[in-house]
Amino acid sequence: MQNKYTSTRNDKVAIDAKAAIYKGFSDDKGLFVLPNLKDIKINIDNLQTQSYGEIAYQILKVLLPDFSAEEIKASIQGAYHDSFDDDKITPLKKVADFHILELFHGPTSAFKDVGLQMLPQLMNRVINDEERVMILTATSGDTGTAALKGFKDINNVGISVFYPENGVSNIQEKQMYTTFGKNTNVTAISGNFDDAQTNVKKLFNDETLKQAIGKNVSLSSANSINIGRLIPQIVYYFDAYKQLLQNGDIKNGQKVNFTVPTGNFGNVLAGYYAKLMGLPINKLIIACNQNNVIADFFNHGVYDRNRDFIKTLAPSMDIQISSNFERLLYYKSNGNADYVKSIMQNLETTGRMQVEPDILASIKDDFYCNYCSDEDIKKEIRTVFDQYGYLMDPHTAVGYKVMREYQKSDDQHLNILLSTASPYKFIQAVSKALGLSGGSSDQESIQNIHAKTGFPIPTNIENLWKQTSQRPSHIAVKDMKKYVENNVKELWK
Ligand SMILES: *Cc1c(COP(=O)(O)O)cnc(C)c1O
Questions:
Q1: Is 282 helix (H, G, I), strand (E, B) or coil?
Q2: 489 classed as catalytic
Q3: Neighbours of 365 (CB within 10 A)
Q4: Do the first three CATH levels of 5-35+110-227+472-492 and 92-109+229-466 match, i.e. the same topology?
Q5: Which of 92, 165, 188, 381 is placed for a possible disulfide with 433 were both Cys, Cβ 3.0 to 4.6 Å?
Q6: Does domain 5-35+110-227+472-492 have CATH number 3.40.50.1100?
Q7: Which pTM was predicted?
């Protein structure tokens, strides 16, 4: 079983990393995991002298053991050598008494680029000439854009993106409709993110769809349920630690806290993987918006999504079913796949599940969780800009609020806040927070924010208005299957 991936819901499954990336998702509806993850350690003694790419190599090599060294090196080169606007890829900035890890320097200005520049590189080395893959992706805004960009015109791969109507920002929508790959498709659905994600998961297991698209076309995922997207996210936790060492902010081995704005639980799970692999992390601080299902879970040990879905100023975190939470439950139950299967089935049928007290206690050893209201998002954006001259996007502001809440516990460890998107992706919220009268157009709002803050506008966002947009598409949830079928037919007639 060493170094084979298994399913969170069936420990008889044992497949290679390549197969796990190709499939995305296990047939039993579980997610792929490495059972022996905590035995795989990364040596941090010489982190300081390593580039981002070298750290990425160390991590990918051990977690994707059936890829050759050449394949991994070429994938890292292909993913990062010229697509980020900062040589450090994920630069760490010191702001007052804490640090911000900027994850938004990729081609679509959100952290999703880190994983989604890599996933197509890996996928390309997994499929052979006869195989075709249609990637299905549910997005709360940023994954869709980053996936469309990452998979654009990749051979033998098509992509279909579903996003919630009125559930993404104007900039995110514009980014998605200016991608124009011959293999890219994007549509709004009449529903929220959870509807999109749940129905995409159903399509993976839909036999009639599989028959309709033919034997040589398979379906896969670009969401963080795919290990090929999740694993590259472990890298920046180690790289952040390296930057702290380089700046003399910590001594090697000293523990730090990371605060992570959380939706589908992919980002913060990558942090937990980094901890299991030996990175000195004290607490991982989970920051939710008002869709605070996980925060309630921390209080009661009950995960209950029977509540209203709230549209917030941090729309990429408007999620109530955090898929990757299942992976945490797998590790926290010591790989008890039968247990995970039973509680996940409860969640699917009743919208509610409860864990054993010892599992909750063990989760609380590693994590803290709290949430932030829309009012506080605006307040914190304003405060941090006024006090420290740093401009945060609304998701990062959620993290900031919760990080400060946690600090009241008197924990003295150094804090790193993950910044998950550029503030220019969420200009309405940011304008309001700064007290700017919203411009008459998005372009004007962007210029107003820039004039007030001097915070750099990412080139890809500045260039959005020079591009022609596709006409927006909108479908009912029940037509998602037909949509995928048509996309496959169009692409591989
Ligand atoms: C996707 C996203 C998140 C949530 O990340 P998860 O990995 O889904 O928890 C937070 N902020 C932004 C800007 C995002 O795009």
A1: strand
A2: no
A3: 8
A4: yes
A5: 381
A6: yes
A7: 0.96
